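With this grant's support, we have settled on a layout for protein records. An illustrative entry appears below exactly as we store it:
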Amino acid sequence: MKTFLLIGEDRYFYEALKKQIELNERFLLQFSDPSKAASSFAQIEACSLLFLDIPSLNNEEFIDYGMLKNKLNVPLMAFTKKGCYVKSSFIQQFLLNKTIVKPFKMSRLTYEIDGLLTERGDKLMAPTRIGEYLFLKDESLLFGPDDSKKIRLTEKETAILIRLSAANGESVSRNTLLEEVWGYKAGIDSHTLETHIYRLRKKIEELGSNGSFLKTSRYGYKLLFTSN
């Protein structure tokens, strides 16, 4: 899931934009008041896209430009409105990638968002087909055989499936999964993995399949990529 951050003063605009953006389950929108922008750099570094609501930014000194230049490593999009003059120095200071005039259509905004993320090389990971299932790694979603049902996976469940799918049907040992998913050193006796595998299989059963593609082998665990 991609997290975006909007810096501005108009919370009504933020609430309306948040509802529209989060209709797409790939995206999450957060908000920061300009007066708190300096303390929001942790959010900025963690987000995939930064929005500025320029019509509400009356004080150009609300943020340290030098700090922004040093910290900012994500695309930056600004919202403005007709008749709102934005000085070129302001645009240069913020290194804007795109400016959109209000009001705008969500289809236009979505198009621009996808374009900026693609330019940044921040594309969503390609979905993986596991037998009759579709696994969307970046969204932590697993779709059933007819794509009408889906389940949300936890962070560890997603990591397990990513590691097993990378093995292309070969078994992955329990110690390898513990080391790479949890960071445990080999040899530690733990029921953590078995518990997560059990819960993951229960979720898979909720999708209505006759059998699970997640199998136990003498060497560990593996995925069945063929439909049986």
